[in-house]
Amino acid sequence: MSKSTTGPAIETSGLVKTFGETRAVDGIDLVVPAGSVYGVLGPNGAGKTTAVKLLATLLRPDGGEARVFGHDVLREADAVRSRVSLTGQYASVDEDLTGTENLVLLGRLLGHRKPAARERAAQLLEAFGLTDAASRQVKNYSGGMRRRIDIAASILNTPDLLFLDEPTTGLDPRSRNQVWDIVRAVVAQGTTVLLTTQYLDEADQLASRIAVIDHGKVIAEGTKGELKASVGAGAIHLRLRDAAQRPEAEKVLLRTLDAQVQTDPDPVALTARIGAGTVAGAWAADRTETAAADLGAADQAARALSELTAAGITVDSFSLGQPSLDEVFLALTDHPATVKEEASA
Ligand SMILES: Nc1ncnc2c1ncn2[C@@H]1O[C@H](COP(=O)(O)OP(=O)(O)OP(=O)(O)O)[C@@H](O)[C@H]1O
Ligand SMILES: [Mg+2]
């Protein structure tokens, strides 16, 4: 958990930013708990970067309010700045300097004495797998290395809140995984991370909670489980020891779950689709009640298994599947989240 706060890392209400006719951020209400990764998921032009810039005090809101660790982004911008760090398209590393030179320079700018700056630079280069590239100019780095040095530069002083604006866009799978590991390590040190992404699997991998934004508005918010539950339902897949027990198993499932039960062509297999209705309402209506909703699918699965056992039915294997975030996005907007080739400003 974050070492220096008990309240949320970020709280916004009715936050607005317009550019001429464009309402880039159009009344966003968010509560980002401290100590975890919060995902802001949205397609090109959704308003992600604009929202991050408002929160990092790089832009002034036109309406609404935002607080970072309780500090108002307008009235207490300095206090906000002292707690946050930003990695994005606006990275601070100098292309002509080497990895080490960049980190040492930035460390010096942050007020560290030279030996301390050198030590921290070496430590971060090592942690980010850049030791071999430490004495090469950053302009010769690959995209993945570049992204890693950007993040390293932004955590020279461990920030309380780190904004990562699309940290893995354009990276190959291996580099993405490296960045993900770094994000996890940063959070483990107590930093809250607000991560924007166009990648559903990235939000799924890293974020505890996710806000889906589209056209400057939050169209859904909750834990991954809640988001998924709001759209489709989970599915329990079962394989029985004995095909003869399947009709009985069906009855048990129908009785214990708010579920549609399907028998598979395979005579020992059956699938129960858990009703979305039981868990969907809670997160949208009241984000304080979400923990219970998140347990929905797993709880129901556990109950089903124990009822089956009690009825003398032997279950050989069992799995719980959830709808993908892609399905979630498609259901929430009218377009898939993966359409991201169109130009954006
Ligand atoms: N400085 C600006 N001047 C005018 N319009 C802007 C400016 N910055 C952003 N916009 C517009 O605001 C909207 C939101 O843009 P923003 O960059 O916040 O989206 P994004 O979600 O970060 O997109 P991407 O995934 O492409 O980075 C877009 O319509 C964009 O064209
Ligand atoms: Mg952006």
What order do the helices and strands come in, and which of them pair?
Layout: E1 10-19, E2 22-32, E3 37-41, H1 48-55, E4 63-68, E5 71-72, H2 77-83, E6 84-87, H3 99-109, H4 114-127, H5 143-154, E7 161-165, H6 173-188, E8 192-197, H7 200-206, E9 209-214, E10 217-223, H8 224-231, E11 235-240, H9 246-256, E12 259-263, E13 269-274, H10 277-285, H11 290-294, H12 296-310, E14 315-321, H13 325-332
Parallel strand pairs: 3-8, 3-9, 6-7, 7-8
Antiparallel strand pairs: 1-2, 1-4, 4-5, 9-10, 11-13, 11-14, 12-13
Bound molecules: adenosine-5'-triphosphate and magnesium ion (MG).
Architecture overview:
It is a single chain. With 345 residues, the protein is of the alpha/beta class. The chain has 2 domains: 10-227, P-loop containing nucleotide triphosphate hydrolases (Rossmann fold, 3-Layer(aba) Sandwich); 233-322, BMC (bacterial microcompartment) domain (Alpha-Beta Plaits, 2-Layer Sandwich), CATH 3.30.70.1710. The chain is built from 13 helices and 14 strands. The strands form 3 sheets. A 6-stranded mixed beta sheet has the order 6-7-8-3-9-10, with helices on both faces. It has a 4-stranded antiparallel beta sheet with strand order 2-1-4-5, covered by helices on one side. Strand 9 (209-214) and strand 10 (217-223) form a beta hairpin. Helix 8 packs across helix 13. The protein is elongated and about 75 Å long. The structure holds adenosine-5'-triphosphate (ATP) and magnesium ion (MG). Magnesium ion binds at residues 48-49, 165-166. Belongs to the ABC transporter superfamily. Drug exporter-1 (DrugE1) (TC 3.A.1.105) family. GO terms for molecular function: ATP binding. This is ATP-binding cassette domain-containing protein. It is a peripheral membrane protein. InterPro entries: AAA+_ATPase, ABC_transporter-like_ATP-bd, ABC_transporter-like_CS, ABC_transporter_ATP-binding, DrrA, P-loop_NTPase.
